[in-house]
Each structure stands twice: as C-alpha cells, then as structure tokens.
Amino acid sequence: MEYRIALLKGDGIGPEVIDSARRILEAVGEKYDRHFQFSEYLVGGAAYVATGAPLPQETLNGCLASDSVLLGAVGGPQWDNLPVHLRPEQALFALRSGLGLYSNVRPVRMYRALKGASPLHPDIVAAGFNIIIVRELTGGIYFGERGRRTSHLYDSEEAFDTECYSVAEIERIGRVAFEMALGRSKRLTSIDKANVLESSRLWREVMHHLSAEYPQVELADMLVDNAAMQLIRKPAQFDVIVTSNMFGDILSDEASQLTGSIGLLPSSSLGNTTRGLYEPIHGSAPDIAGLGIANPIATILSAALMLRHSFGLLAAANSIEAAVEAALDAGCRTRDLLMGSQAPTLSTTEMTEEILKRL
Ligand code: IPM
Ligand code: MG
After folding, report:
1. Which of 21, 110, 125, 256 is in the most buried spot, having the most CB atoms within 10 Å?
2. Phi and psi (nearest 5°) for 356?
3. What is the rounded distance in angstroms from the CA atom of residue 281 to the CA atom of residue 283?
C-alpha cells in the first residue's frame, strides 16, 4: 500500500523542519516496509512570490488528491502589508475550510527530560500534565463577517469582526472532544465566555445537551479568563479541553510554554475523512529562518500523528515518538530547549540525526 503525502514547506523555518520530518518518515517507512510518496506544493508567502496567490489552485488540488498533508509554517514580515486576501495566513484558512478540517487537536504533554525547561514552579511540574486541546477550526470569529464602516456615534471609521457559531458546528466539534475524553480519563472541560458572549451561551447549551449522550464523561465548563489562569496554576486538573477557534488559538500558545518550548508541539486537523493536515503549532520564525537551528521536533511529531490518525500505522507512530523521547532523555537539545543547561546546542540536522539513530 502506498501513502500519498502532500508536503507544504511554506515560509521561514518551514522548509527546514519539513526536510527533517521527511527524513524521519522515509526511515520509518523502510523500517515498517511502507511506501510514502511525497509531492511538494507551494503555500504561503513562497506561493505568493512564485504565483501571486498564497494558496494556488494546484496546491489545493494536490492536497485533495493526497492521503494526507504535512505543512511547515507560513508567514513573514515581508508580507505584512499585503491586502488581506493575499496574506500567507489566508492559505491556512483556505486549506482548513477547503479540506473540511473543523477539528484541530493539540496535545500538550510534559517530557520527563524537560522538566527543568518548564517556567512553572517545580511543585507544579512535579504533578505533570498531559492535556489535549480540541480547537474548533473552521468557524467562529476567524470566519465570521468582518469589515469597516462609518461609526455614526463618533463620525469616524470603525471595524468589526463577528463570532458566530451554529448548533451543528458546536455539535460536531463537541462530539470529537467527548469521544476523545471517552478514550482517556473521561474528563472534559469546555471553555467559553458565557458570562458575556451569546455565541458562548449557545456553545455551553449544546455541550450540555451532548453530554447526555456521554454519561460516562464528566463535563465541566470554565470561563476562558479563568482557564488562562488555571492552566498555569494547576495544569494537572485538565485532560481534554474543547473550545472555540480563537480561544483555542490563544490557550494553545499559552499551554505550549508549560512544556518548555513551542518547538515541541505538533497538531492535527481533521474533518470527516482520514485526510488530515498536520503541522507544528509554531510559526515560521523568520528571525531564525535559514540558520539551521530550528527545533524539528514539533514537525516530526506532527508526522507521527499523521501516521496514527490518517494511516492507522500505530507502531510506526509510536516508534517516532519513542525516538524523540529517547533523544531528549539522552540530553539532545536544540537552542530553544537549552534553558540554562550546559548541553551542546544541536542544529536542526543534528537533532534530526539523533532521532534517526534511535528509530
Ligand atoms: C495557529 C496560528 C494561525 C491561527 C495563524 C498563523 C493564522 O496561530 O495555527 O495557531 O491563528 O490559526
Ligand atoms: Mg496560533
């Protein structure tokens, strides 16, 4: 059986971390006798420069014709002043909605070797944490009506963005989260701002309604401001979190720092088919692009998620995750993971090779 993987390198450190992940996939394919066929497509600023569009039709078609998609990162300061529809981020939104990927799953766990890298108090770190953030990805304020208009009150320009969720949208992301909680500790925290937002009140209603279908899962609501605090105060209280597009965006960056570095966190975006989009949660890091020092782990772990969720290759996925953990245990550190340690700083390629050795 052949697996067709679309590789979207994108901008900044994207090409470097995708090259690392490809090497790992090739090695694991050999080990488990699976054949991965890679096709590269342009995305983001790189695609804009080459074709005038951040998501060329050829890229979207290539992704639709693939079994799964692995993406590096998009964006960079040189494209900050482009009109909105040409900005590199538009490619992400068009891919997410074009491929129907409404559920974004971001696992946040503590690595034993990196306990010292967490900015949290040692007592909090000692309790450990293993959180899954389920972020709604194709609705809410990211996709709602927005624009500029004249304010009648102040006789000047004003801008607006709209948070809008339908029952169907909340239900389908809710189901993903409840199912995930069923397979884990059976605890689900739904995060909203129901004391202020009507869309959050509907969100809460629908989650409670769904909860009747999942009596084994204990559902708790939490307001987003409190959740931002609780993540740092006592991360161990969370297991599966479900939240809206924007709250999930913000909380997942916050949660990433609990692990020590955003360079560790993978993500998967899925819809109703097995075709997913897998990407590190970090951005294109233009400040270190091309220097060969980016941490490839988040992208390598994203590739592992692809093997597990899109292809059902559980042993291969586990072996990548074990190799990453073994490299970290052995003291391998890219620059973002140093945190005062005396370990020699590995380059992107060196870290990749340390992981390859342990596959
Ligand atoms: C993410 C990113 C994107 C988002 C940006 C690059 C538009 O922050 O995937 O979390 O906000 O969704
Ligand atoms: Mg983000």
Report:
1. 21
2. -55, -45
3. 7
- pLDDT at residue 116, rounded to an integer: 82
Q: What are phi and psi of 83, to 5 degrees?
A: -60, 150
What is the identity of the amino acid at 246?
M
Does the active-site annotation cover 193?
A: yes
Query: With pLDDT > 90 as the criterion, what percentage of the chain qualifies?
Result: 88
Q: Quick one: pLDDT at residue 354?
A: 98
Mean pLDDT of 136-140: 98
What tokens appear for 157 in the block? 């320009």
Pair 282, 10: CB distance under 8 Å: no
- Please name the residue whose Cα sits nearest to atom 9 of ligand 1: 281
Interval between CA 236 and ligand 1 midpoint (Å): 25
User: What does the pLDDT read at residue 138?
Assistant: 98
DSSP state of 318: H
Element (H or E) spanning 269, and its range?
A: strand 266-270
Place of tokens 């029952």: 167
